[in-house]
Amino acid sequence: MRHVTLRMLRVFAAVARQSSVTAAAKELHLTQPAVTMQVKELERSCGAPLFERMGRRIYLTEAGRELAACAANVTENLRETQERLDALRGLKKGLLKLGAVSTAQYFAPALLAAFTRLHSDVNVRFSVGNREETVRHLAENEIDLAIMGRPPREIETLAEPFARHPLIIIAAPSHPLAGKRRVPLKKLESERFLIREEGSGTRASMERVFAQAQLTYQASMEMNSNETIKQTVIAGMGISFISAHTVGLELKARKLAALDVVGLPVVRDWFVIHRKDKRLSPIAAAFRSFVLENGSRIIAKAAS
C-alpha cells in the first residue's frame, strides 16, 4: 500500500460507485484504458483482486470493499482538512452533513435556513431517517451532526440539549374524548392506537410512558411516517402518541385535537449530537454552536 496514490483511489472509487469502467472513465474524463491501468496498478499494490465481473457489471470483492471503506475515509479526511485550512485563512465555507430523525424534519429545515443565511458559502447534505438509521449514519461517520430526541447508547457521543420536546396524544376533533378535561391514561387502554415503527424514538417514548404507568395499549396500525399517522387520525381511525412539533398546523386549523391526558404532555429534550471521537470541521462546529444558541427560539417559531 506504500505506493498507492490519491489518483488511484479516486479512479477506484469511481469504478466502485459506477460498477462500470466505461461509466467511471466518462465521469473522470479519462480513457477506458487509463482507468483499467490505474485499477490494475492498484490491485498489484494491494496484492488482491478488487473487482469481479458478472455479466456486464463488475462488483467489489471482499478486498475491494475493504479498500472502498479506506478510500471513503481518506476522502473525508481530506475534505475536513481542507475546511480547517480554509478556516485558518478566514474562509467560512464547506460541507455540512446533517442527519435528523424523521420527527425533527418539521423544524430542521428552519434551522438550516437561518444558518445558511449567515454562511452563504456552506453546502448542506441533509438526511432524514428513523432513530436506528440516524444512529447508523453517526456510527459510520456518514454525517457530522445529528438532531435527535434521545442520545444513542450504541456508540459514544457528545449530546447537548438545545430545545424542549413535548409529546402529546392526538385524536380527530370528533373523538368522544376531544375537549374532555383530565382524561386518565388508563381510559386510553381501550382506544385504537396508530403507532410508529420499531426503531422510532417516538414509539420508544410512548412505550416508556405506558410501562411506567403499568398500563397497556392496543396497537391497531403501525406506520413509518408521521404524515400518514396524522392523516389516519384525521380520518377517525384511531388516536396516536406523537411529537407536538409535528402537528402545530393541524391543531391550529382544528383538523386534529390534543387530548388533555393526565401526565401529558411528556416533555423531553432535542439534542444536537456528534460522535465523541469526531473532530468537527469548522463549519460543523459553527452549526452546532448556532443550534445551541438559537435552536429553541427557531423551533418555537417553526412549530407554531
Structure description:
There is one protein chain. The chain contains 10 helices and 11 strands. It has 304 residues and is of the alpha/beta class. Strands 3, 4, 5, 6, 9, 10 and 11 form a 7-stranded mixed β-sheet that branches. Strands 1-2 form a two-stranded antiparallel ribbon. It has a two-stranded parallel ribbon with strand order 7-8. The protein is elongated. The mean pLDDT is 91.
Topology:
Layout: H1 6-18, H2 21-28, H3 32-46, E1 51-54, E2 57-60, H4 62-88, E3 94-101, H5 108-118, E4 122-129, H6 131-139, E5 145-148, E6 157-171, E7 192-196, H7 201-212, E8 218-223, H8 226-234, E9 240-243, H9 248-252, E10 257-258, E11 266-275, H10 282-303
Parallel strand pairs: 3-4, 3-5, 7-8
Antiparallel strand pairs: 1-2, 5-11, 6-9, 6-10, 6-11
* Number of extended strands: 11
Please state the average pLDDT score: 91
Name the helix and strand elements from N-terminus to C-terminus, one letter apiece: HHHEEHEHEHEEEHEHEHEEH
Instruction: Describe the largest sheet.
Output: 7 strands, mixed
Which value, in Å, is the CA radius of gyration?
A: 24 Å
Uncertain spans, ≥5 residues at pLDDT below 50? none
Oligomerization: single chain
Provide the β-strand percentage band: 15-25%
Task: Name the shape in a single word.
Answer: elongated
Helical percent range?
A: 40-55%
Question: Number of helical runs?
Answer: 10
SS-based class: alpha/beta
Distance between the termini: 56 Å
Features:
304 residues, 23% strand, alpha/beta
